[in-house]
Amino acid sequence: MAFLRTVDAKAIAENLVAFANTEGGTILVGVNADGTPAEERPARELIDRILGQADNLYNPPVVIDGCETIHLKPDGSDVNEHGADLGSAAHESTEAEPMVPAFSIRVPRSTELHALADGRVLIRSGEGNRPLGGQEILRLASAKNTGDFETEAVPGATIDDFNREIIDEYLEKRAERMKRASTGDINRLLSEIGAITADGKPTVCGLLLFSDYPQRWLPQSSVVFARFVGTTPRGEHGFAGYTRREEITGSVPRLIEATWNLVWSEMAISAVVKGLEREETFEYPQFAVREALVNAICHRDYRLRGRRIEVRMFSDRLEVISPGGLPGFITVENIKDEHFSRNPRLVGGLFHWGYIEELGLGIDRMLEVMEQAGHSPPRFDARPYSFAVALHNGRIRPRVPEWARDTNHRQARALQYIRDRGKITNREYRSLIHSVSAETLRLDLADLVEKGILNKLGANKGTHYTLRDSSADKKDAP
Fold first, then answer.
1. FRET partner for 275 with CA separation of 20 to 30 A, picked from 168, 210, 380, 398?
2. Helix (H, G, I), strand (E, B), or coil: what is residue 360?
3. Which pLDDT belongs to residue 238?
4. Is the domain 2-136 a CATH 3.40.1130 member?
């Protein structure tokens, strides 16, 4: 979403180009960055005139889904609640809370490469627009020139090849995600999401999402799983070293679940006892595994007919290999910050289904959960016709900070508590450490203050302890 406080042809043109070149989006005119209505209330005639002026600032023309009048609450809550689907807010006006008019310009993803009159090619990056460099433009142009394979009709397939139970499951999940039920003709919805063509023929995306066995038409859409004994695919005497090999078929949602269950069944699980509770520790963080699987299935290049997704479990790592290189301008270096989908309709379907938690943030969280579990970061291997993610199960032994080395185990827990929460009180320390007298714990904290590790702040019941800057920053430096 882009928020434009004032009506400006140049700003509208830049956002139209950026959204069309990337994943599409919505431009909100007359809305502040925080979602509240702007002081300037543009008229519809002005919007139409400025859109006409913007058309002269880029090439080729950008097609929009329409410019709608929307109505916002003064606090901007409709923007927060409805996101890009602001049209539903237009009829919620009440006498108690008058609504403020604004405009919503919907921009679909384009199959063409758009450039501004000054030669810049913009993409949407986070909350702003970024110009591409020469090589990035070439890669994006190549991705655009391949066309939308996922929306091509599949010869020989009919709408009867869809499983109505799978469609109903999708509609139910979509209603939960969108917070409203889908209404109207089912075929119209299938056409809108790219599952069927305008004349009712199933597309590649539609068969992948809703067919029991899309592999009949798209044999490359299955997943091959292999469990190896050691760290290489070869066993003794040059023979294959796998102990289990299975091919998984079915619709994309079934592929994700079946592959996940297979990996889960082969995943080592250990247990540690914390206090009086037994806590299970998995060989790999669950989110990281599911994210790697979902990304491979929804972003692979389905035009490559001779290769399938491979999931390989070794003794030291899990590899997920997806046919097709990184799409568009995406590289290993910018994969965390940029977002471009080879199959945007398939991605949208899995998002509505709930398999993608939040668009564009999966890699960030994968890195985060791997670090939290004590693992090295995922390793990405991008090649012209494949992309692989490797999750390693070895745990990195955390470095003991200098300021925590001259402490007992109780004090070390108190220091970690402060690092996580910013401070600790005597009561919190007592709830953290059991079977030790309150006086001993008080002396622990006093000792840390005397050593210059903690600051004692407040008095009486308001007393609390924080890390001194010198101990937290200087002593912890490598």
1. 398
2. coil
3. 63
4. no
**Fold of the domain spanning 219-392:** Heat Shock Protein 90 (3.30.565)
**Interatomic CA distance for residues 461 and 426, integer angstroms:** 9
**What CA–CA distance (Å, rounded) separates 111 from 213?**
29
DSSP 15-68: HHHHHHHTT-EEEEETB-TTSSBPS----HHHHHHHHHHHGGGEESPPP-SEEE
CA distances for 168 relative to 161, 163, 164, 174, angstroms: 15, 9, 6, 10
pLDDT classification of 471: cutoffs 50, 70, 90 = very low
What is the per-residue pLDDT across 104-133, written as a single tens digit (0 to 9) for each? Answer: 999 999 989 999 999 999 999 988 999 999
pTM of the model: 0.71
Domain boundaries, given as residue ranges, for the chain: 2-136, 150-216, 219-392, 402-474
Distance CA 265, CA 274 (A): 25
Which of 419, 426, 472 is CA-nearest to residue 445? 426
Q: If we measure between CA atoms, which residue out of 342, 278, 268 comes closest to residue 304?
A: 342
CATH architecture of structural domain 402-474: Orthogonal Bundle (1.10)
